[in-house]
Amino acid sequence: MANVAGQPKVVLGIDIGGTGIKGAPVNVETGELLAERERIDTPKPATPEAVAKVVKQLVEHFKWTGPIGVTFPAIVRNGVTLSAANVDKSWINAPAEQIIADVVGQPIKLLNDADAAGLAEQVFGAAKGRMGKVLVITLGTGIGSALIVDGKLITNTEFGHLIFPKDGIAEHYCSGKVKDDLDLKWKDFNPRLNGYLQHLDLLLSPDFVIIGGGISKKAEKFVPEMKGIRFEVAGATLQNDAGIVGAALEAAYTYGVLTPAS
Ligand code: BGC
Question: Which residues pair with 94 in a beta bridge?
């Protein structure tokens, strides 16, 4: 598949996670996935080279030629991965975008997974058309964050690593994984999330906070329980596809398939 005049603008989006690597071609004008998602287990150990080979397998699965957007759950600055909280430590300081592009043999745009989710929510989801300060928080294995100010994404905010509540970090207190590992019921988990959101409120005064990650499927269990905050809260709309769609969008902007709306 590739882009042809008069046809939908399509980019391949790939979402690298700790347990699975998923991809699908995305119509970047509508956010629609144009084929069923394909998922391959994340290799062990998940080094950049091993992960790059899986990305290549996905590219071959879709017989894709053209730009490819790829997410990664770490700080990504100018194509270099700078952290590795829940992934193999060999990603720290790795020129990951180049490593993947070399293995795949096609142009790659690499970005943080929560930034991708934020971009997708802003263009096609719950934050569509919203001005002001929008914060997308993803609750999964870790906690990811995307800050969007008047429609512009401020990348690599890493609010999951805020020291909260006292001597640990937020993602060790109220991520989706913490909820599962400690088998927390909603009545026990919600006060944790609420405390974290109150902390974010004090630090950032956002206008709107969108909660993504696996948990967002159950938004009705936590959204009404959030108290003492001065912003609107909602569950993410794109849920599982946000990473794939956001990755495709960012690659579309980078490689001139699409011009970002100003
Ligand atoms: C990482 C972030 C990532 C988040 C969600 C955190 O541990 O530091 O970069 O966005 O997990 O995957």
Answer: 81
